[in-house]
Every structure is written in C-alpha cells, then in structure tokens.
Structure prediction request, 186 residues.
Amino acid sequence: MGYNTHLVRAGLIPTRNRSSGLEIAEVIMPGPDERVTLPYIRIRTGPVGGNLVLFQPVAITHVTQLTTGKTLSIPDISLTSFPCHAVIQYDDGSVQLNRITAGTAGVYTFRDDVKPTVKAKLYIFGSEYGPPTVVYKLADASLNVLEAPCPGVFVAKEKGWPVLLFLQNTQGDQDLEMATVAFINV
Prediction:
C-alpha cells in the first residue's frame, strides 16, 4: 500500500534559514485523525555539518493558564531533564513552540510567555538523545537529501500528535531547503 491509499493531504515546509546560533524549528501539526510522515527532506550544510532532529511527544496533557506568564502548573507531569521543547495548542487553534527551562513539584518555567487559555493541549518533547527522538547526522559542506517511499523517511508514532523538525544551526550555515509532509490516516 502506498500514499495514494492512505493520503489525507500533503504539504511543503518551505525554505528556512537563520543567523548563526538561531535554531531552525518547524512544528508539523496534524489533524486529530492524521499521522505525520516525511517522505522527502533537503538540507544544505556548511563546513561543520550538523544534526537533523525529529522530536515526538513524550507527554501530553491539558493545561489552564489564567494570566500571561512564564510559569505554568502541570501537576500530572513529572520532568527531570531541562531544557525540553513544548508545543502548546491553544483553544483558539493557534500553536506556540516554547521551551521548558526549569521546574520542580509540578510547576514549570517556560522560555517565552504562555498566553491565557481555558484549556490548551500541551505536548512535551523528549531530549535530543532519548527515545522517541530520531537524529540524522548531516554530512559536512553538502546537500543532504533524505528520501524514502511510503511511509517515508520518518513517521509519527501516533495519529494527531505533532512532530518537531529541528536544526541546531550553531554556525549559521544550515538551510532547510525543503521538506514534503504527507498526512496519512493509518
């Protein structure tokens, strides 16, 4: 079975490049009955190469925030390793990529303000080196093309769960030239 049988929709992640030290991060947010797949990714690297990291959620919960702030109470989640990435899907449908920088006893500090929300969905991603994260080592000073037939180079582990595509970009010499996203229903 190929994409044609299970394809719900497809899209492109356009070119992304940033100055040195600024990460390239793209949240891929599926619909509730869609699974993210990445059949094609093209990245140009500078002299020191780099890593493409594809993060998947390790914890999901709902949160309420009454006022804008960087501190959020998440009593049902226990995190011990910081920093970690987080995606907040607000009740108005908007999505924010953020980073949890510290926390203890169910109270966590975020890098950027979390806006007021009645019931947002919070996706917490693991570390770069732990499961279920996938890391691709990119060749130095070259055009790196990752391509595979169905189900693709990468498949999200659950329907409805976002994926975070991340390039560290410490030297400012990495460009995400393009990626194809296919959303499937299996």
In short: The longest helix spans residues 3-6. Helices lie at 3-6. Residues 9-55+132-184 form a domain with the Jelly Rolls fold (CATH 2.60.120).
